[in-house]
Amino acid sequence: MINRTRVASGFAWGLRLALAVTTFSLAVPSESRAQDVGLPLGTQAPTATLQDLDGNSVEILNYVKGKPTLLEFWAMWCEICESLQPQVDQIHSTYGDRLNVVAVAVGVSQTPRRIKQHLGEHGARYPYLFDVRGAAVRAYKVPTTSVVVIVDGNGKVAYTGSGAEQDLVGAVRKILGS
Questions:
Q1: Which residues is 71 bridged to in the sheet?
Q2: Do 148 and 168 meet the contact criterion of CB atoms below 8 Å apart?
Q3: pLDDT tens-digit readout, 123-132
Q4: Which of 26, 129, 132, 142 fits a disulfide with 50 by CB distance 3.0 to 4.6 angstroms?
Q5: Domain layout of the chain by residue ranges
């Protein structure tokens, strides 16, 4: 038999918790929420073996090449990734000579063929790598798409963030000192 008092109490507790989390997230500035996922800041960026869109094995850190690099964990079906695209494109066009941009296409409901088709329709201005086995997702402790990791020129994690409210342009300016 269901104890209605216990169910009502549990529901009330859950409602209070949800309200507290919402209140906290609204009270904390979005810049503070940017550093909320993945690897701790200052840690060495790990390497991981991925594939380029032609199926060749590549090491993700080969794309860092001694200068800061923005890694976006991306999916063509991710609406938040789509909303971040104008910022990422702006960063690439404005700072591309001082910072690398690399998209890491997660291996969920995507194939290299479909990604190539998507990029053909939308344009590809920087490298897209395919994380077919989730090696980069695991190495960078990425829980979802729309996660961005910026690695500084020394290979250290300088920024992590997720969601549509990220100020990626501001984060890049800060890292580049401009």
A1: 102, 149
A2: yes
A3: 778 999 999 9
A4: 129
A5: 1-29, 34-176
Q: Is 92 exposed, middle or buried (0-12, 13-18, 19+ CB in 10 A)?
A: middle
Encode burial over 114-125: b for 16+ CB neighbours within 10 A, e otherwise: ebeebbeeeeee
Amino acid at 114: R
**Non-local CB neighbours of 45 within 8 Å, separated by 6+ positions:** 39, 61, 64, 140, 149, 151, 155, 156, 157
CA angle 142, 111, 131 (to 5 degrees): 30
Q: With CA atoms as reference, report the closest residue to 86 among 172, 174, 169, 171.
A: 169
122's CB contacts (< 8 A; 6+ apart) are none
The pTM assigned to this predicted structure is 0.78
What is the number of other CB atoms lying within 10 angstroms of the CB of residue 157? 21
50-70: per-residue pLDDT in tens? 999 999 999 999 988 789 999
**Amino acid type, 31:** E
Is residue 151 scored above 60 in pLDDT? Answer: yes
